[in-house]
Known about the structure:
Helices cover 30% and strands 16% of the residues. It has 10 helices and 13 strands. Helix 2 runs parallel beside helix 3 and helix 7 runs parallel beside helix 9.
Amino acid sequence: MVTMSQSYGPGYFQLGNRTPIGIGAVLNGWNITDAKFRAGTHTIDFCAMTEGCPHNCPHCFTDKKKRTLTLDQIKLILNEVAWSGPKTVNFIGEGEPTLDRDFFDIVGTTHSLGLIPVVFSEGSAHLTDLEFVHRLYGLNASVVLKLDSLQDQAYQDEMVGDEKPGYFEKRNQAFELLKRQGFNAVRNDGTTRLGFDMVVTSRNVREVPAVLRTCREQNVWVIFSFFLPTGRSGRGEVDQSLIVSLEDRAWMRQQIRDIDASFGFVHPVLNNFGTAACIERLQILGNGDVTPCPGNDTVIGNLLRQTYSEVLQELSARFPEHLPEACDGHCLYREIS
């Protein structure tokens, strides 16, 4: 709960003029101010990693396309990207990024170029290994763990599609190890390096308040996302009974407002992540193709044939709603309700 001694850091894009310190309000790498965002600073999504994954999640939005870019090509692309506006590279992968044979070469290159690596991971493959976690910490990476439930082991294990149970416990082990390493240490700018990405369904929506309180109390960032209109959910492969009703969405958003206000964090509740604005611009696929974002799989260029600046120009021409002056923090491809 917020107290009179609550400390605040600077404000960030669409999240108000000040950010409470120590509640996981903003992820390091996503801490972009309004002024810098409007000037072109952004994050990019990087899928050019292995398509391999130990799970078969029904709500996965990737198509598991094989990476064909070589390590040298990836390094050249990252070098060009570093000079063109992005602050952060979100490693979301076609599969599980930490399984890529060149994972540390790619993340290390990102760090050496002055970009912040943000690794979205299911957690159980490598993040239960102390040496792996320690090495990742040294590269200034932030880590965002997959989350379907913190409370319901049966539901969590079901939602990763494994033949045998066990994911829930391993993911929680990774969470505890990341905390022990200091990924959720309090930072003076109000950021944290540890987060959760929770896909909200009709079966876990009532867990949102408990998850949010847990994250605020432990300085862990959290986003609450609904199904994307791409990948499996875009093809209608998701069980339609899992889609959250408009009434439950309204209830969830009010819960977010009330709980965050109790921690001194007053911000708009946006349609994509609930607690954070969308600052993603461009998604790089495993063959060099580029799309606007995970919600729009239209190929607008290829970085083996075009420069990053040329692809940005193509984005501006074909999808001007993605330009920083037009963005309001809402996802363009999810319903606003």
